[in-house]
Amino acid sequence: MIEIKELTKRYEDGVLALDHVSYTIQPGEIFCLLGANGAGKTTTVNILLDFIQPTEGQASINGHDCTKFPLEAKKYVSYVSENVQLYGMFTARQNLRFFAELGGKKKLTNQILDDAMRSVGLPEKALTMRLKHFSKGMRQKLGIAIALIKDPPAIIMDEPTSGLDPKSAKEFLDQLDKLREQGKAILMTTHDIFRAKMIADRVGIMKQGRLVAMRERANFKHADLEEIYMQEMQADSA
Amino acid sequence: MLRVLIRKEITETILDLRFMATALLCVVLIPLGMLVNLQDYEQRLAATQQEHQMYRQRYSVPVAPAWGKEEAQGFRPPSVMSLFASGLDPFLPDRVFTSPTGLFRTERHPRLDSAQTLLFGQMDFAFNVTFILSLAALIVSFSAVCGEKERGTLRLMIAHTVPRGKIILAKVVGKYVLVVVPFLVSMLIALLILEMSPNVSIGSHDVWPAFLVILGVTLLFILCMVSLGLCISTFTARAMSSMIWLFFIWVVLVLGIPKVSPIIAEILYPVESENAFSFAKRMAAEDIREEFNQRSKDIEKKYSDQMDKEWNPKFIQIAKKYRNPSSSEYSEEDYLAANKKLNDEWNKANRERYDKLHAVMLPLAEELKRHTAQSLGRLEQDHRNRRKKQVALGLNLSRLSPVSSYAFILAELAGTGVTEMDNLSQNAQRFQEQVKDIYYDQAYNQFNSGQYRPKAYNPFDPPTLPDMTYTRVSLAPVVQTVWPDILLLILFSGACLTLAIAGFNRYDVR
Ligand SMILES: Nc1ncnc2c1ncn2[C@@H]1O[C@H](COP(=O)(O)OP(=O)(O)OP(=O)(O)O)[C@@H](O)[C@H]1O
Ligand SMILES: [Mg+2]
Which residues form ligand 1's pocket by a CB distance below 6 Å? Predict the structure, then answer.
C-alpha cells in the first residue's frame, strides 16, 4: 500500500536527510518508524504527502507515485501531523466538516461529525467550541478525527500521540487496532517505544537518514525494544 | 470542491477583524465622499448658473454703440460625472471669451470658497477607490497564503486531494467577494444620496451608462488589487514580510509611479509652458498685423504719391501762370478761380482714389484674417501636438501602475480627464466661430480705423450674442479612448493570478 524505494533526500543546504531508504507497508499493517531527532522521519512523511520532492528514489501510495501524481496518491491517504493546526475561528465541527468535504465526504450530518469527534475522545462541550480555545491534545484528537473520517486505505501519522494524555493515548491505540482490523496500512513515526512495542506489526529504526534496523513483531514481542533501539544508536555512533 | 474551498475562505475572512475594519471603512467613506462631492458639485452648478444668468441679463446684447470689439462669454457647466472623479475639473477653465481677432481665451475663477477641500485634497470616489479600497483589497489578501502557512493549516489542506490551482482560485474568489460586497453596499448608499439631490438624476442618459462602466472598471480594479495581494502572499513565507512588501508595493503603485511619471516625461520631452505659449502666440499675431499694417500703409502711400505726382504739377502750373508777376496773365483773382476749380477736380479724384483703395484694402483685410487664423492655428496645432506627446509619454510611463490606468479611465468617463481639455478647446472654437459669424464678421475687421467697416452694420443695433452650448464627449468615443487601459487592468490581474498560481505550485507549504 505504502511503498518507499531507495528514497533519498538532500536539502538545499546539503543536509542528507534520507539516504536510500526502502520499505513497504502492507494493508492491515502498522509500521512504526523510530529514530532520534533529525533522523529523517518527518522528511519521509513530507515526501509521501508531496510537501517536498525527493532527490532520488520514489515513494508511492496504492501504486501511485507521490511525486509524479500527488493528487492521485493523496486520494488514498490521510495525514495527522505532530502538531495539528486548524482554523482558530471555526468550531471543531466546522473544521471537521471542511476537511471531510476536502476528503470527498460531502453532506455529512452533524450527528456523524459529532460521533467521529466523540470516538477520538473529545468531550461533548468541545464539539461546538472554537478551535482557538482548544488545548494541544484536543487539537491532536480533532486532527485524528479528521484523518479517520476520510476513511482511506492508508494513514500517515507523524508523532500523533504527542500531547495526548495517557488515557487518550491508550484509547488511540485501541482505535489503531480497529483500523488494522479494517485492513488499513498505517505509517506512524513516534518516539514512544513503549507504545510502539504494544501496537506495531513492524518497527523501523532510522539514524541519520538511514534505516538501520527493521524488526518484525515476532522479533521484538518478547525482547526489550528499547534495548534494541539503544543498541542500534550506539552501534552507529561507534 | 471549489465551492467548499470558497465557502471556507469566505467564512474565514468574515470572522477576521481585518475584514470588518475594511468593510466599515468602505461603507462609511465612499458614501461620505459622495456626499461631500455632491455638495461641492451643487455649489459649482449654482455658481455657474448664476454667473451665466447675470451675464445674459447685462451683456448678451453688446452695449451700443458696439464696434465689434466686445467679447462674448461662454460658460462650461460642471460635469455631473465629476462627482465620481473630479480629475482635472478644479483646474479646467470654466469660462470662454471670444475675441474679434479670432483667438478665444479661457479663464478660471479660483474657487477659494472651497479652500479646505484644496488644502486637504479631494476625497472623491476616485480617491476612495485608489487609496482606501486598494489598500483594503491588499490588506484582506496579503496573507492569504503565507498567513495560512504560518498558522499551519496549509499543510493539512495540501495533504488532501486538492489541486493547488483551485486553492488559489478559491482564495481569489473568496477575498474578492469580501471586498466587493462592502463596496457594492457603499455604492448603493452613495447612489441613494445622489438620488436625493434634485440636481442629479441617476436615470438620465449622461449618468447611468457611464456609471455602469465606472462600476465595472472599479470591480476590475479591485480584482487587480486582490490578485496582487495574493501574488505577494505566495512569494513570501511569513505574513510579516508579506506586509512589508505590501506596504512597499502599494506606495510605489499608488504614490510613486503616477506622481513621478509626468516629471520624467517633462524631462524627456520638454514643452514650453501654457503661459509662455500664449505669449508667443500673441507676439506672432502682432507681427502679422504689423506686417499687414505696413503693407496697407505702403499701398496708401503709393496711391497718395500717385495723386501727388499727378496733381502737384497742375497746382504748380497754375501758380506759375497766375502768380508770377512777370507773367502776362498775372492775376490773383484768376489764380483763385483756377485753384478752386482745380481743387474741386482734385476732390473728385481723391474720392475716386479712396474707392479704388477700398477695393484693394478689403481683400487685404480678408487676407489678414485668413493669414492670422492660419498661422496661429498652425502654431496652436503644433503646440498642442507637442503637449499631447508629452502627456501621452507621461501617461504611458504611469501605466506601469494599474492605479494610474484606473484613475485615467475614471477621469475620462467622468469627463474630467485629458480629453476634456481638447473638448473644451473644441467647444470654445465652435463658440468663437458662432460669434464670428453672427457678430464680428458683420461689425469688425482687422484695420482698426473703421474706415473699411462693412457698410450694412449698424453699431446702434448690435445682434444678440449666442450662448455657448457645451457638448460633452459621448460615451462611445470615451470607451474607445480608455479601452487600452481597461485591457491593461485585465492583463495586470491576469498576470498577478498567473504568477500567484505559479508561485503557489512551487510554494513550500511546511
Ligand atoms: N527545510 C530543511 N532544510 C534543510 N534541512 C532540513 C530541512 N528540514 C529538515 N532538515 C534536516 O533534515 C534532517 C531530518 O529532519 P526530519 O525533520 O526529517 O527529522 P525527524 O526524524 O522528523 O526529527 P524529529 O524526531 O525531531 O521530528 C535534520 O537534520 C534536519 O535538520
Ligand atoms: Mg519529525
Answer: A 11, 13, 15, 17, 35, 37-43
Q: Is B499 a residue whose pLDDT tops 90? A: yes
What number is the ipTM of this complex? Answer: 0.90
Q: Do residues A82 and A192 lie in contact, with contact meaning Cβ atoms separated by under 8 Å?
A: no
Give yes or no for A113 touching B (CB within 8 A): no
**A107 touching B (Cβ < 8 Å):** no
- Note whether A79 contacts B152, CB cutoff 8 Å: no
B198: CA distance to ligand 1 center in Å?
Answer: 71
Q: Distance (Å, rounded) from C-alpha B227 to C-alpha B138? A: 9
| Shortest CA distance from B12: residue in chain A | A89
Confidence of residue B455 (pLDDT cuts 50, 70, 90): low
d(CA A137, CA B193): 54
What does the domain layout of chain A look like in residue ranges?
2-76+152-237, 84-150
Residue of the CA atom closest to atom 26 of ligand 1: A37
Measured in degrees and rounded to the nearest 5, phi and psi for residue A201 equal -85, -25
Fold of the CATH domain A2-76+152-237: Rossmann fold (3.40.50)
What pLDDT is stored for residue B440 in this prediction? 81
Give the Å distances, CA to CA, from B23 to B140, B145, B183, B194. Answer: 10, 21, 8, 21
Q: What is the pTM of this model?
A: 0.84
What pLDDT is attached to residue A234? 79
Taking an 8 Å cut-off on Cβ atoms, the answer to whether B156 and A146 are in contact is yes
Instruction: List all residues 6 or more positions away from B217 whose beta carbon is below 8 Å from its beta carbon.
Output: B406, B409, B410, B413, B482, B486, B489
Per-run averaged pLDDT (10 residues), chain A, 238 residues: 91 90 92 90 92 92 92 92 91 94 89 92 91 91 92 92 85 88 92 87 90 83 76 68
